[in-house]
Design a protein that fits this description.
By secondary structure, the chain is α+β, with helices and mostly antiparallel strands. Helix content is 20%, strand content 39%.
Length: 257
């Protein structure tokens, strides 16, 4: 084979690899354009859970009639167990690229297979989140590309081996009064996050509100994939993650048990 033919053959191979890698990236790992999970807008029905029977009763003549007393009663109604209900979602977000090309968007996968519960306690006007455990079925997480989802069964999240992810609260959280009045309010959730078979203590920034008789909590946490012994997937040798970093996102809705 002449030198010119060797050079031409080499160029064809390089082009084929680049094109093939891009096609694989485009069909399997190109990112989605999906907004982050966030709290729904509260409406006029937002507010503390209260007993309709109690509210319709005539107040005894000796009962307190101040707004603070009413607020304490409403707060007391929040105490107890709240279970995860419909409208809850959780999933991942990972920024991707092909070789040295700039990233176009994030890859996002989500599921509504979220279970768990929280416990609220009340003391006077204060409400405290005292316990909580959330479990996500990672095998049900889907994105806009089934080929990517199938790949994550054996790479990255390795959902075939690690079918669940969990978060367990380890420190109580005082819920701001504004959140209990239907205003989205910042708080920090401290607990143990178990992902890919690895458990780490984390602090998750979140927002919470009481709206439509439900406790709603949304947030996200970013972390190096290596913290949880995960490796970014690749296709044909083309590394697709800009860096060793991903994010867990969630919107969890709770209803009074």
């Amino acid at each position: 084979m002449t030198r010119s033919r060797i050079v031409l053959f080499a160029l064809v191979v390089v082009v084929a690899l680049v094109v093939g890698g891009y096609v694989a990236y485009d069909q399997v790992l190109r990112g989605d354009s999906v907004s982050a999970l966030a709290l729904p807008s509260a409406n006029a029905s937002a507010g503390p859970v209260a007993s309709s029977a109690a509210s319709s009763e005539t107040r005894p003549s000796g009962a307190p009639s101040t707004s603070s007393a009413a607020g304490s009663g409403a707060t007391a109604a929040l105490a107890g167990t709240w279970n995860v209900t419909s409208g809850s979602q959780a999933g991942y977000r990972v920024r991707e690229q092909l070789a040295n090309l700039p990233a176009e968007s994030d890859a996002v996968g989500r599921t509504d297979k979220v279970t768990g519960s929280i416990t609220l306690d009340s003391s006077g006007p204060a409400t405290t989140l005292t316990a909580g455990t959330i479990t996500v079925d990672t095998t049900s997480i889907t994105s806009d590309k089934p080929m990517r989802d199938n790949r994550l069964r054996r790479e990255g999240l390795e959902t075939d081996t690690f079918p669940t992810a969990t978060f367990k609260l380890t420190s109580p959280v005082e819920i701001p009064a504004a959140a209990m009045s239907g205003t989205a309010t910042d708080l920090t959730l401290t607990g143990d996050l178990t992902l890919h078979g690895v458990t780490k203590s984390v602090q998750i920034p979140a927002k919470a509100q009481l709206a439509n008789g439900q406790v709603q909590v949304a947030g996200s946490i970013s972390f190096p994939l290596s913290d949880y012994s995960m490796t970014a997937p690749s296709v044909g040798g083309f590394i697709v993650s800009i860096e060793d970093k991903g994010a867990l996102e969630f919107l969890v809705v709770f209803a009074k048990a």
